[in-house]
Task: inverse folding
């Protein structure tokens, strides 16, 4: 449904964009030895804090002391029914880890935002572990972050040629999880539910009934299972997969988002039907971040950084490309074209 001719993005897409921004900020500063980069969890918590800022404040064009250049995009300053766990955990500063859980939530607010980890990292196992770390910042239950890990593995395997089909990626993700999280008490529950989704995808079962058997998607393992079912059953029909993923009484925007993560990675941007991107809100911003994530090399400074008592001083960039990159992922003062 279009609102004033625009296909509005959801909170899932908002948080996915901030995930991508945070990863690129962290890696840029790490590679250049800049001060203030901090830990991955600390950087991502700060970036999610910037997302929270967009949910609580009005857009102000003056320069902000922020981690994410996305705060310079006024269209992101709109609430799209964000999840309560994300709001609460980020308001507390985030910072959750798998070793020190911030709560015992297994809601889908972790799994629905971690796809950038799979685009960024070429090794599926590394992408899976990163995705689990990202989810654990706000969702501390095993099923909340392990489900995200399996999705991150699948996205990386499909994006970087380690899997030729959704089924191969899913089975690889489950095998990886069985090794990475072999001592997790709730892992068998996730594996059984995802395998049920695989089985249902091969049966002559109505989509609504199959999804009823898998759950409504309010929790991470159900979101992943519903997405796996839809992506497997309609691997060659993006439209039908999305229709099945969103036409149920549960958390349909999240099951739709994760189905889109899987199949969008499988078919690529040009394999997505034009109607899904033609009127998409913030299409240019989404594509710009996706292109940045998929870069093989980051721009680097040819001249050394200068360290002073006040921190690290970046030298002047050696090219317009480098200047633009560091306006995005160092100073966060980049303003995309068309933004006032």
Result:
């Amino acid at each position: 449904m279009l609102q004033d001719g625009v296909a509005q993005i959801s909170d899932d897409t908002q948080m996915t964009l901030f995930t991508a921004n945070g990863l690129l900020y962290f890696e840029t500063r790490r590679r250049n030895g800049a001060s203030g980069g901090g830990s991955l969890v600390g950087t991502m918590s700060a970036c999610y804090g910037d997302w929270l800022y967009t949910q609580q404040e009005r857009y102000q064009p003056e320069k902000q002391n922020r981690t994410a250049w996305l705060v310079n995009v006024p269209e992101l300053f709109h609430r799209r029914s964000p999840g309560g766990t994300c709001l609460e955990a980020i308001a507390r500063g985030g910072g959750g880890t798998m070793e020190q859980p911030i709560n015992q939530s297994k809601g889908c607010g972790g799994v629905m935002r971690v796809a950038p980890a799979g685009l960024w990292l070429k090794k599926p196992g590394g992408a899976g572990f990163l995705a689990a770390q990202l989810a654990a910042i706000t969702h501390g239950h095993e099923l909340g972050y392990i489900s995200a890990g399996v999705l991150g593995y699948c996205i990386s395997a499909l994006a970087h040629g380690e899997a030729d089909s959704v089924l191969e990626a899913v089975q690889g993700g489950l095998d990886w999880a069985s090794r990475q999280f072999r001592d997790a008490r709730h892992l068998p529950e996730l594996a059984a539910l995802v395998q049920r989704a695989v089985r249902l995808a091969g049966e002559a079962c109505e989509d609504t009934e199959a999804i009823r058997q898998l759950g409504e998607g309010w929790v991470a393992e159900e979101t992943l299972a519903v997405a796996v079912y839809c992506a497997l059953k309609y691997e060659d029909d993006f439209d039908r997969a999305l229709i099945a993923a969103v036409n149920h009484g549960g958390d349909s925007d999240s099951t739709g988002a994760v189905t889109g993560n899987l199949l969008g990675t499988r078919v690529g941007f040009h394999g997505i039907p034009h109607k899904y991107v033609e009127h998409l809100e913030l299409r240019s911003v989404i594509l710009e971040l996706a292109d940045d994530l998929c870069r093989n090399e980051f721009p680097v400074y040819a001249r050394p950084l200068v360290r002073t008592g006040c921190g690290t001083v970046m030298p002047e960039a050696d090219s317009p490309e480098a200047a633009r990159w560091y306006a995005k992922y160092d100073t966060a003062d980049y303003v995309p074209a068309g933004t006032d």
Remarks:
- The beta strands are 306-308, 311-313.
- DSSP finds 14 helices and two strands in the chain.
- The first strand starts at residue 306 and ends at 308.
- The longest helix spans residues 11-32.
